[in-house]
């Protein structure tokens, strides 16, 4: 594995760590909005 691949793997891991909580927050917001507008059945 060369330096570019190592850098990209590190970058991808960092991006995944950032995106996972963002996705959970968006999921919780979507559940809150669906309950607020009474569309969750």
**Span of the ends, CA to CA:** 50 Å
The number of distinct structural domains comes to 1
DSSP strand content:
under 5%
**How would you sum up the global shape?**
rod-shaped
The H/E string reads H
**What is the number of beta strands?**
0
Largest beta sheet, briefly? none
**Percent helix among the residues?**
over 70%
| Mean pLDDT metric | 95
Low-confidence stretches: none
Task: Find the structural class using helix and strand composition.
Answer: mainly alpha
Number of helices: 1
Radius of gyration: 17 Å
Characterization of this structure:
- The chain is mostly helical.
- It has one domain.
- Helix content is 83%, strand content 0%.
- The chain is built from one helix and no strands.
- The chain is rod-shaped.
Defining traits:
41 residues; rod-shaped
List the helices and strands and how they pair.
Layout: H1 3-36
Outline:
The protein has 41 residues and is an all-alpha fold. It is built from one helix and no strands. The protein has one domain (1-32).
